[in-house]
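Quick illustration, no need to memorize.
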Amino acid sequence: MKNLIEKFRASLSAQAALIVSVPIVVILAFHSYLAYQEDRDRLFRNTEMQLLRVVEGLKGPAETFVAMKNPEGLQHLVDETAEGADIELVVLFDPAGVVIASNKKKWIGQPMAAMHPEDLTENDIAALEKAFAGGYSVYYDPDDMQYCCVMPIDEGTAGPGSIFISMDLGSFAAESAESAVRIALASLLVAALIGITIFYLLRGRITRRIMDVSSTAAAIARGDLEARTQVRGTDEIGRLAASFNTLADETEKQKNHLEEMVEIRVRELSGLYSVVEATSQSLDLDTMLPIVLKQVLRIMGVEQGCVLLREDKTDALRLVAHHGFAPESVQELEGLRPGEGFAGAVMARNRTIRTGDAAAEKDVVVLPGLEREGIRSVLAAPIAFGQKSLGAITVYSRQTDRFSENEEELLGSIGAQVGVAVENSLLYARTLELTREDGLTGLANRRHLDQMIDRELSRGLRTADMLSFLMCDVDFFKRYNDRYGHAEGDVCLKRVAAALRESFKRASDLPARYGGEEFSVIIPNTPPEHVLLLAEALRQRLEKEAIPHESSDIAPVVTVSIGVVSAPITRDRDRAWYIKQADDALYRSKAEGRNRVTHTIE
């Protein structure tokens, strides 16, 4: 052993191999640990965001189904949610802690305690109790290696219920650990091979020439990029010295190039961050996208640009934001149809377009407005979510070949980021619309009706505006259901709703389903005599619809009785007052023979 140690001390090759190999082993091992931790942290972050999106997407529809007392729809919603990747358990509890829906149907109707310990741990029960008190929790439960999210849901006056969703992380965690072990073993093998290689390369006792290279390397490391080693001979060490000098030359060039690239990337990343920040300021596209365009123009250093979006229902293009154009050019952009211009081409191809001479472009029809503006360079990127084309963002310049490949890549990244924000905004709008609509008729529901009456009363109080409220009831609707069945009854209500929608088309009017066969309309800032004409026109429209109703005592067709109140908004007239006055008028219409309008004017 003593002789072996002495040989090691006398061997520069062995010492160099050890000196190089040990740090490599430590660095690679540390890298393996960091990779494992990063994989684990990313898994937890992704899982948390995924669970929150799932729960947020489930919460609104679940509350709607609970409010509608629709257990079949609620169970179907739970089953669809449970089909998501690695979703282990989805359970909805009522305020008493009883399961009302679950992908494991054996728990339906069972109390929360019955699920312990098979599917609920002590941590899960504590989180559920917190949810019943109005709080929510997202946590990793080490007892069963699952990531869980618990959130309260509104179940009316009985108090909050709860949503519980868990995702199994066992396989992910095991795979991450195995990957870390493989990386560590590979790191040790690489380090050993490097050590052996260095040992044999340095074994020939070529210290002086290596030290020359080493000294030059140290000088370069200190920042002296002009330092070079002396080349002696044409053997391996000589070629190494020559290669080292070549490497030093290239390093100096690359350093200068990288400094330029870093400066460019810093500007680009700063600009991209400003765009991301702009997309987070509002879910309203008409508010958010002009801010985004302003940031894009600042990043690109140009003055002209526009953002167009594709309308979901009509597939038409809508100019959401623009800057730097004459009014005539704006009119050209507003009249843009799908497939026209650079924006249309970008949406059709779902990829960026960059041209240095728009006037010479043959593949894209240049709009007259752009020719009038003297546009030469155009850079357009799609606003897309995955493969779904949502719109386009386009910037312009009067200079030829104004935009670079880096700017094209940057605008493409911005378009992708804006696409996510636009999709989120559209999803939010659709979700909000669902919470405001009656599921059968498509009219506003009772909750939205109450909110809008209160808003109108608050808005009109300062100026004592006139507010009219209409109540409409289908005559002998119970007999209709008994005679024709509930399916036909639903069809009848839909036709009544369509008549309401056609009779009250103003944006300020709000037709709504009050409940059952009763409908309401909020009619602000309208003379009472005109309100009466609208109400009578509605009654006549429904009578002319000639929906058969053989069980009616009034007519052989469906008719309606209507009660209306019109009164200036004052502090002592709240929502309940208007509803009661309209309801009293409706009652008088029924008492006086139905199929008529009774109008109360205060």
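The chain has 17 helices and 15 strands.
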